[in-house]
Design goal:
Length: 382
Amino acid sequence: MTNEVAIIGVGMHPFGRFAGRTAMRMGTDAIRAALADAGLRWRDIQFAVGGSWEVANPDAIVGLMGLTGIPFTNVFNACATAASATEACADAIRLGKHDIGIAIGMDKHPRGAFTVDPTLVGMPTWYGENGQYLTTQFFGMKANRYLHEHNISQRTLARVAAKNYRNGALNPNAFRRKPIPEQDILDSAVLNYPLTHYMFCAPDEGAAAVIMCRADIAHRYTDRPVYVRAVAVRTRTYGAYEVNTTYAPVEEDVSPSVYASRAAFEAAGVSPADIGVVQLQDTDAGAEVIHMAEAGFCAHGDQERLIADGVTEITGALPVNTDGGLIANGEPIGASGLRQLHELVLQLRGTAGERQVAGKPTAGFALLYGAPGTAGATVVTT
């Protein structure tokens, strides 16, 4: 018999720039916030899973929190790291190995674009030198191709970014907390067409943590549990147009985001129509547009109309990135997906304050996409 899994505590260290503060210290703040949210002490935690790009051994955080001897598993899957941490934590509880655990993410990235050394993941140096790796060039090429194929305008990208800046202004944990008008976004420097400067997120600093337990004991800690219905992680297949595509495919295939989303919905027993609040990877505004269709929330090409009609606004029928997403929060890679869960839990509890979706949604969805082509999808419900 397997156990149902509930989220009983969430915590965040704000995202942004924090001189003199290490990723580990930010991680401890997120953990303590999650513990306080659940009414637990560190010694109540039976195991932990943690992920980071910059910190080689996130497990070392136990030295700051307390040496209680718990098992700690380090995970990494680029921007999809938090999906792997969430899945590992939930599965250990679901399979009866532990009753209460915590997933942690933390990072402290240097200023600048995501220009990571490609040799770190087995790619040749020339791959990064000609702009094909984790750079603005790749994101721009992908967005340009998608907009061309589906007759979507550059202004739609500006609308996405403007929405996320507005939402970030309502989020005390966000990095960028100032609304930026659509025209200013369009008029900002073009980094890689069709993406301008203000259409990109920024690598930054922060941490987040989520505490889970067996659902049948969740009432001991909270009267508002949120249930982890499914987590699915998928890698790309041959022919997918993704970061490490080094040669022309014989036949094109879809993004791993499609497969991860489908698997998560199937495992959860819900459909995109049941979802009341959505968190999508928006490394750039084009990514949010693309992921709307890849996750199954609309047909390819319908995004232009839906976004223009305000469907993805907090007040719309399908609120997307209500906390500002990556565009407003930035992306400390290891923490990014747990920030998504933090927001979904607040929304499903009805405690998101000024950015609360009306009617308190009963189901939420989060999608992460990480290079070189790994996607993680999570479904949570009340």
